[in-house]
Structures are given as C-alpha cells and as structure tokens.
Amino acid sequence: APVIWWVRRDLRLGDNAALAAAAGSGRPVVPLFIHDETVEALGAAAKWRLGEGVAAFARALGARGSRLILRRGAALGVLRAVAAETGAAAIVWGRAYDPAGLTRDKAVEDGLDGTGIELRAVAGSLLFEPWTVETGQGGFYKVYTPYWKAVRDRDLPEPAPAPGLIPRPDFWPASDEIEDWRMGAALGRGASVLARHASVGEEAAQGRLGAFAAQKIADYAERRDFPAAGATSRLSEHLSWGEISPRSCWHAGLRAMEAGKAGAETFLKELVWREFAWHLLWHSSHIAERNWREGWDDFPWSTDGDSPEATAWKRGRTGIPFVDAAMREMYVTGTMHNRARMVAASWLTKNLMTHWRVGMGWFADHLTDWDPASNAMGWQWVAGSGPDAAPYFRIFNPETQAAKFDPDGAYRDAWIAEGRQSPGQGALDYFDAVPRAWGLSPDAAYPAPAVTPEAGRRRALAAYQAREG
Ligand code: FAD
C-alpha cells in the first residue's frame, strides 16, 4: 500500500524529512499537493509565486520518475479520497506552525482518527521546533538576543541529500492541471512583471545560496543594510516556500564562519530572526492579529486602508523617495530590502499614523516571500506594539536613512521614474505592473509629500506620549 506524501510549503527534494520518511518506508510514494483553504487565503503575489513553485516542483518530481498530484478542496476530504483511490496506508507531511495550518492539520488528524491510516507529521521548515527552546523559567522567549544565545551553539544535523529513488505506485490517481487553478488571477497584469524578477525552484535556491556563500557572505555584515548593494542572500522567497531548508543555509553559514568569513555570523543571526518569528507565532498566535503588547489598543491609528495617505503609501506616491522606492520595489519584484521594509513600515505607522494591520495586509498581498510569522513580527516591531520592539519609540527618518544607506541615491534612482532623464527598467516596470485604474504614468510629476518627516514625527510622538500617560 502506498504512502501519501502531503506536500505543503516544502517544495524541495533535498533535506526534506517528510519525503525521506515516505521514501524510506519502502512503500510507493504518492506526492500530493492540495489547493485548500490556506492556499485560497493567500495574498495575490504569494499565490502566484506558490503556483510557480508548485509547477517547478512538479517538473522536478517528473524528472525523477515521480509525479505531483494536484487536487483542490478541503484537506481532509481530499486526503480521504486520495487514500481511498490509492489504497494508501499512511500519510506523512512536514509540520505547520501557523494558526491556519495548525487548525487544518488538527481537522485532518481528528477526521482520519480511527480509519487505520497511519498519520505522521515530521519537523518541517524550521531549525528549532518552537517548543524546544525554553527560557530558564520554562516559558518562551520574547526577546531576540537571549533566544539567539539559547540556540546558537546547538548542533544541527547536516542537510540530508535528496533520496536517490522515489518509489512509484502501480498507478497514479487523477490530478488537476496547475493552469486550471489560475494562481495568478488576482494579480492581473502584474504577473508577467513579477515573472521577470522571481527566482523559482530548488535548483535556483541552491544556486543563490552557493553564490552568496562564495561571493557575498564575507561583506554581508557591512553591506547588508544598503538596499542598492545587492549584498543580501535573497533567499527569503525560497525559504518561504520551502525550496531550500534553513538547515542548508545554516550549514553554509557555519562553513563560511569556519573559513573566517567575517559576515557569516551575522547571516546566521538573520536566519535565527526567522526562527524567532516562528517561535513567537507558535507561542503567541495573536501576534498576527492584534497588538502583541497590552496598552496599545487605544493608540490613535487610523484603520482606514483607503485613506488618501494610505492609498499614496500603497501606490508608492508618498512623495518621500526612499519610501516610494521601497513600495515600488515590492510591486515589481515581490520582495523588498529589509532596511526599506523598516523605513516604509515606519512611515505608514508613525508618520501617517495608520494601523500596522493595514501595512501587514498590503505586504501579504504583494510579497512573494510572504510568511505570516516574519511579516507579523516585522510590522509589530516597527509599530512599537510587538515583542522585542525598540526600547524607545523609534521613528525612522527616511531622509536620514536615505543619506546613510543610499548615499548616492542608487536605490531611489533604480525605482523611481518620474522626473528622471532615462529611468531604469525596474522603475519603468512599475508602471506595467500596477493596475491601469491607478492612472500612473512615468511622465507625471513626482508628488509632494502630504506630511513632512518633521510634522509626521511630531504628531506620532505626541500620540505616543499621550498613550504613555
Ligand atoms: P538576508 O539578509 O540574506 O537574510 C537571510 C534570511 O534570514 C532571509 O532570507 C530571512 O529568511 C531571514 N531574515 C532576515 N532578516 C529577517 C527578519 N528581520 N525577520 C525574519 N527573518 C529574517 N521576511 C519574510 O521572509 N517574509 C515576510 O513576509 C517578511 N515581512 C517583513 C515585514 C516587515 C515590516 C519587516 C521589517 C521585515 C519583514 N521580513 C519578512 C524580514 C526581512 O525583511 C526579509 O526576510 C529579508 O529582507 C529577505 O531578504 P534576504 O533573503 O536577502 O535576507
């Protein structure tokens, strides 16, 4: 009897414990991806990117003589049906850690209880299972640095190679066609622009990691904050969809550290920020829903995502070049440099006094590297309402930030076309990506800011001081 390998956000053959368990069972393996309610709920860019990832992964499995079966519907019903059709005796999957995934998995476990089908969830997409990292008092970590100290010296097994053979079943159950899922439908014309900038699949992920470890990691600590420098790994979209395991990244970082490359430890620390985000989400799922800290619910944020200020922010038309460059970079590439994420998020939540949930939702709709943990932690950190938020009320000044991290204006030039003699391709791509209804043109005048950095800062500080009572 076959084993169903339920593929989720782990679109890889290498270092995949669920695949290893399935292939190692000696039974034929039926790889299955389900377009369930968690896929339905994805933002437009993430859903498109998942579709690309699933298609690439289906090709990779095909090249191994296996297949990826695609089905649509609630996971429990689909698993029941595929188990009945194939006579499967077992289902194995890589664990989820987010509330929606956990709810779905619980429904599957409850629903298949007593059917005799063996169910097995194995460690999936993290370096450290969230419940294995505890403070001296037995609770979870709420501050990054002690979390980092608690995990940095842990021994992690080397990443496991892809299994040599994925045993095939005697016959394949029916499968949907990925094209029929229309994963890019919500994206409109932006899909073809994103396609030019996305990096998809396990091979591409390994290529990025290899190139980063060989060329960039040494200078990573010094250069990672400069958005035009191309100095970061750009692995986030691969990590998000599980096209590479964090363990592969961790060991590449460790090897670079042993080779004396200066930036390697900083890279490991960033990988641990991702772990910390999942640790927080797993232990306190409300981080993705409401203010993590108490006392923030009265903060006078506007929750109107369609206000003129929020609309200008979303459309990269705030009149603050660093912020607008950031928003456009995301629209065109599906990712945004980390420094730019912080500055853009600060501008929305502080200077424009708009709720972080508005920004979190916009990012969720436009990031191809979206993950619920890092996005929620990032927004609450910047907004000041989150765990490990800056100890004082941090308001990034985009002009100071630009002077420091984009001194020659290369980042702003790369993404803003208005008022420039010969704008670059990325800056022009923006106008191809956005809905026509926005009525944007590279020949229009660049807007003046509705709020100056100084006025916005004063308003935000006053609100913060009022909150402090
Ligand atoms: P590198 O600098 O090369 O770092 C390596 C890896 O470490 C990244 O791929 C990522 O997995 C992890 N990492 C680095 N910085 C962070 C961080 N601050 N928090 C968590 N993990 C980190 N990251 C996402 O993957 N998905 C999101 O939805 C997301 N939303 C964010 C929202 C806000 C408001 C902010 C401030 C940050 C957000 N981040 C998110 C974190 C970070 O900006 C990206 O992970 C990073 O820019 C990805 O680029 P890179 O792969 O080149 O990173």
TrEMBL record:
Keyword Flavoprotein: yes
Domain called Photolyase/cryptochrome alpha/beta: residue spans: 1-127
Keyword Flavoprotein annotated: yes
SUPFAM superfamilies per record: Cryptochrome/photolyase FAD-binding domain, Cryptochrome/photolyase, N-terminal domain
Required cofactor(s): (6R)-5,10-methylene-5,6,7,8-tetrahydrofolate; FAD
Xref: InterPro entries: Crypto/Photolyase_FAD-like_sf, Crypto/Photolyase_N_sf, Cryptochr/Photolyase_FAD-bd, Cryptochrome/DNA_photolyase_1, DNA_photolyase_N, Rossmann-like_a/b/a_fold
Keywords of the record: Chromophore, FAD, Flavoprotein
Pfam families, per the entry: DNA_photolyase, FAD_binding_7
Family stated for the protein in its record: Belongs to the DNA photolyase family.
The name this protein goes by in its record: Deoxyribodipyrimidine photo-lyase
Species whose genome carries this gene: Rhodovulum sulfidophilum (Rhodobacter sulfidophilus)
Lineage per the UniProt record: Bacteria, Pseudomonadati, Pseudomonadota, Alphaproteobacteria, Rhodobacterales
